[in-house]
Hints:
Layout: E1 7-10, H1 14-25, E2 30-33, H2 37-54, H3 62-71, E3 72-74, E4 86-89, H4 95-108, E5 114-117, H5 124-128, H6 133-136, E6 139-144, E7 153-158, H7 164-176, E8 180-183, H8 192-208, H9 214-224, H10 231-238, H11 240-254, H12 262-269
Parallel strand pairs: 1-2, 1-4, 2-3, 4-5, 5-6, 7-8
Antiparallel strand pairs: 6-7
Helix pairs in contact: 1-2, 1-3
Amino acid sequence: MSSFGKIGVVGAGMMGSEIALMFALAGYPTLLSDASRDAAERAVARLHDVLDRGLPRGFWTAEAVETARRQLSVADNLDAYADRDLVVEAVFEDETLKRGLFAKLDAILPADAGLASNTSSISITTLSAAVSEPRRARFVGTHFFSPASRMKLVEVIPTADSDATFVDAVMETMAAIGKTPILVKDVVGFAVNRLLHALVLESIRLVEEGVCSPADIDVACKLGLGHPIGPFELMDNTQNSLSLSVHEILYQAYGERFLPRPLLRQMVAAGYNGRKAGRGWHRYDSDGKRK
């Protein structure tokens, strides 16, 4: 097995929709679905805007953009995935939700189709327990990074039962869509999130201690460490509630070093969830632009 033919992506948020876009740009017939068809159609409309903005900047060729428009389509429901060769899950970071989805897909997909989860912190082996034993050999984690249309890295995480040939096929497919895959052991948080959230937690401590403001720490990480985006900008873009959820998961796995910070809990409880909410560590206007 060297590649897959037809691709499905479940979850049309910012991450899932851009994952679907990457497959479509590479020429894979790609189905995208969400809780409703309207939500998936709105996501595809946003992707068309992403393509329109990226074309004059040279992110993609005109031919690739036309291919993406042609190859990307919306699924009414999960039954439409019955002919898919690989389905990537990119729904909310909730283990019960993800396991329920995988159980449904397991009953719909062809016997030789594969499943992948874009979870950022949940054990892939644990998620694979939701599907039948034969399917577990064709189950991996594919952890993309936001924004998926620009970030090159994908962590590929085999389960305890993943077939090596299937894992190789997933690695090759990630390279085929323009990503750089790395193999990571199935541990909670994988590799990058353990590194990232150690930085995030220390950044919040600096704010709690009055050492620096969120804005100054963002500048420090960009200019001093060469990061493309600061930790507080990143949390606002991906929602503070998600960061808190990841910290809870890491804390349960590794103890005190990942204990969620009180200030982040306060922010989430107050509804200061980031860019979409209009307020997080920074403030945003109605168009999502930082004030």
